[in-house]
Amino acid sequence: MTRKRKEGQRYTEHQKLEAATVFLALGSNVQTAGVLKIPLDTFNKWRYSDWFKKLVEDLKAEDNLKLSARLSKLVSKALDVTEDRLDKGNYQYDPKTSELIRVPVSLRDAAKVASDLMERKDIVEDKPLKEQIEKTVDDRLAKLAEEFAKFSKVKPALPDPMVIENAP
Predict the structure, then answer these.
(1) Are 113 and 120 in contact (CB under 8 A)?
(2) Is 23 exposed, middle or buried (0-12, 13-18, 19+ CB in 10 A)?
(3) Which has the closest alpha carbon to 9: 44, 48, 52, 38?
(4) Which pLDDT tens digits describe the chain residue by residue (168 residues)?
(5) Residue 21: CB partners within 8 Å, gap ≥ 6?
(6) DSSP letter assigned to residue 126
(7) Which residues of 109-142 are buried (b: 16+ CB within 10 A; e: fewer)?
(8) 33 near 43, Cβ under 8 Å?
(9) Would you give the distance in Å from CA 7 to the centre of its chain?
(10) Crossing angle (nearest 10°) for helices 40-47 and 13-26
(11) Distance between CA atoms of 142 and 164, rounded to whole angstroms?
(12) Cα separation of 143 and 147, whole Å?
């Protein structure tokens, strides 16, 4: 049973926010309008309006911030575990004593961790590779432009023209 709005009755800001949120979750105009019991024509007008697009962008940005915070916590925990294992060793079951003991991390594993972390550190500290490549390409293009400018200013020396006389 769909609720019909009376002519001239407006939707609340909360309903519009809910529409944007549901649309992000479902990705379908028809499904969103159906779930929220909003006429499809009304939702389509909203969907392509500037305020709706801005609202969707804001919701995505908020989700990205939340995700980034969660990922940062996970990375921090993973680094703590890695540091603990490198300092105190891996857990290993000792069948003689029926207990878990700590054994040193293998050189191969330690080297792999060090290599991976150094790669990540370089990525985080340095400019992204794409920016470096663009800068290099821009520099090369600027040098080429200078060289072409030099070539255009230099006039090549032409040999004296040969005169052929006509004999009578």
Answers:
(1) no
(2) buried
(3) 38
(4) 445 545 445 889 999 999 999 999 999 999 999 999 999 999 999 999 999 999 999 999 999 899 989 988 998 898 899 999 999 999 999 999 999 999 999 999 989 988 888 888 777 766 566 666 777 878 888 888 888 777 777 666 667 777 777 766
(5) 59
(6) S
(7) eeeeeeeeeeeeeeeeeeeeeeeeeeeeeeeeee
(8) yes
(9) 44
(10) 90
(11) 47
(12) 6
The residue assigned the tokens 């019909």 is 4
Answer whether 36's CB lies under 8 Å from 28's CB. Answer: no
Across 114-158, the runs of DSSP E, i.e. the strands, are none
CA distance 27 to 40: 14
Q: DSSP class of residue 49?
A: S
* 38: its two tokens: 């909003």
33: nearest Cα among 24, 44, 25, 17: 44
Residue in the structure block whose two tokens are 């985080």: 124
